[in-house]
Amino acid sequence: MKRVNVIVPAAGEGKRFGSSEKKTFFSIKGIPLIIHTLRRLAADPLVDSILPVVGQEDIKRLNEMIGTYGLEKVKKAISGGVERQDSVYNGLRFFLENMDDPQELIMIHDGARPLIPDGLIAHMVRELLNDPEIDGIIPGIRLTDTIKETDDKGFIKRTLDRESLIAVQTPQLFKLGILEKAYRVAYEKGIYATDDSSLVEQIGGRVKIIDGSVKNLKITKKEDIGLLYLYMEGEIYDQDWDWF
Ligand code: CTP
Ligand code: MG
Q1: For the chain, which has fewer Cβ within 10 Å, the N-terminal or C-terminal residue?
Q2: How remote is the CA of residue 61 from the centroid of ligand 2, in Å?
Q3: 186-229 pLDDT tens trace
Q4: Three-class DSSP category at 36
Q5: Where are the beta strands (DSSP E) in the chain?
């Protein structure tokens, strides 16, 4: 099967996380968060190369860690930009300079999501390659809480139809050509988005959502660390609850 090249945006400041050590390098069981993510990606046989994008001031220490942890598929880190989208675009431009086939597979995965589910990448690649009409594949999870829209004073304006609402995650998978167009058009029009599929949608691309996992959480706040430890321990959450 065709293999994927992954851009890993990890150049954020982690403001909501609020630790003295940056979120990207926060130690989880003695290993920096970004290394957990890079290791998991590197262990997937469908991943060809991985390009981490971090703050300019962190390039040196990350490159040293890539050596220390023996992550051979991981390229030397490049520097990010002001917004997540700018960081991803820096990564995309690197691949555009080094690849000329628009059919190459480019995946984008947040450095802050260390628990990519086993088999997810293979599932995504299969879905994308099986249907030429599809421009992108992303994982998402159906919402379980009822969602309300509020005004700026906190009063409810309306209740949204939960059935059609999905919270999306990374990794997100696209072909190089469509991603190049989506990003070029976004910068021409001054569009900024918090995920990559939004930019593909903007150019009329067809993006399919497949089942994600709650375990694939994005570390955003301190309390997410507790959940992460729980998910990293016994895999009981993956088993069927039919022991009784
Ligand atoms: N990211 C990035 N470049 C930026 C902003 C974010 O590469 N300019 C990355 C983050 O490092 C993270 C991912 O995009 O891996 C998702 O962003 P988020 O969870 O919002 O992380 P931060 O931006 O670091 O956190 P915060 O918004 O709380 O400051
Ligand atoms: Mg952010």
Answers
A1: C
A2: 21
A3: 999 999 999 999 999 999 999 999 999 999 999 999 999 999 99
A4: helix
A5: 4-9, 27-28, 31-32, 47-54, 78-79, 105-108, 136-142, 148-150, 156-159, 166-168, 172-175, 207-211
22 CB within 6 A, ligand 1: no
Asked if 235 and 117 touch (Cβ cutoff 8 Å), the reply is no
Please work out whether the CB of residue 24 comes within 6 Å of at least one atom of ligand 1. yes
Q: Which residue has the tokens 């729980």?
A: 230
Q: How far apart are CA 48 and CA 74, in angstroms?
A: 9
pLDDT the model gives residue 232 = 92
Q: Are 186 and 193 in contact (CB under 8 A)?
A: yes
Q: Cα–Cα distances in Å, from 86 out to 9, 81, 91, 217?
A: 9, 5, 9, 22
pLDDT band with cut points at 50, 70 and 90 for residue 69: very high
What pLDDT does residue 164 have? 86
Helix, strand, coil proportions of the chain in percent (round to 5)? 35, 20, 45
Is the pTM higher than 0.85? The answer reads: yes
Distance, CA of 133 to CA of 88 (rounded, Å): 24
CB of 200 within 8 A of CB of 175? no
Confidence of residue 235 (pLDDT cuts 50, 70, 90): low
Mutate to test the pocket of ligand 1, among 23, 35, 192, 228 (most ligand atoms within 8 A of CB): 23
Pick the ligand that lies closest to the CA of residue 113.
Answer: 1
